[in-house]
Amino acid sequence: MFQYHCLNPIAEVGLAKFSDQYKKTEDIGAADGILVRSAAMHDMELPENLLAIARAGAGVNNIPLDKCAEKGIVVFNTPGANANGVKELVIAGMLLASRDVVGGIQWVQENQSDENVGKAAEKAKKNFAGTEIQNKKLGIIGLGAIGVKVANVAKHLGMEVYGYDPYVSVDAAWNLSRDVKHVLNVEEIYEQCDIITIHVPLMDSTRGMIDQEAIDRMKDGVILLNFARDLLMDEQAVLAGIKSGKVRKYVSDFPNSTTAGQPGCIVIPHLGASTEESEDNCAVMAVKELMDYLENGNIINSVNYPKCDMGVCAQAGRVAIFHKNTANMITKFTACFGDNGINISDMMNKSKGEVAYTMMDIETPASQDIIQKLQSIDGVFRVRVVK
Fold this sequence. Notes:
Largest sheet: 7 strands, parallel
Low-confidence stretches: none
Shape: elongated
Number of helices: 13
Radius of gyration: 25 Å
Mean pLDDT: 95
Distance between the termini: 13 Å
Structural class: alpha/beta
């Protein structure tokens, strides 16, 4: 029996995927797995028995990834599960900024008591007419699940699309329209595009990447869209760009005191992945990842450990080892089993940066003595008996 704890409300359609071998607990200290959306976990004391955290969404900046890795706690996310919901809002944001629909609606509200508001609108509408997006150049920074969907829709809308992603995956490349111009230097997007949207994770290398220098390279009247993370933008530089006329509109899905209510800013209350469909998709995907890991030791879509899938164990036992990515570790592991006359029928070792994950299927169940020997090897974070 496994126990799970929800730090945030998780869609019931996802929780219903748990089999009768799972029980929901309100005691986080008793949980084998945690399901989370936006709850901040950096200052939490993680239970010693906690095995995994599944984030029902893509961003994981609310989870202490390194701390979890050192404790052998696998952190999952759900890439692509909310991509369609975000894509639709990105397109909506692009249209709102291009046509100044928001400004027009506000004018109507301000003049609602005017009996001749219809006639007055005919004179005022030129102030909100804006421009069409057809034939405009759209620059997409980050060609993950969301960026690819935005690119493909934009092509159907008649836009000229530039995409930048030095780490584009094979799956993303296959799904990307062949008409998208894949550029090798982000500066080309800054210099060529009328509208720029960013879809990269928040990391030290991407924090504030759209800064004053980047904005200075852009075309006059550029529209900036941010549905990824507000800290990817130097928003003070964006406001300065709006004031100078360099930036025509800034559309953000992240309300904060810097941009809320500011001229030229369309700030949406973090609605990108808040659709019923997105929340359902994320919940289902997170639960499936958690179950496969807890039951089989398989790791799919982890952000702090490598992908490792050995299916369902058909042998007497399966042991998973979390360890540093250093030389000679496998030799030490196999020696522990060999010295005790236990045959390893199958094995997989994968690494991700400074950490690694090894699974071994064995023909005889591992004794507590063997597990302790494995745990005592220098560089081992955690040893888990899966079966």
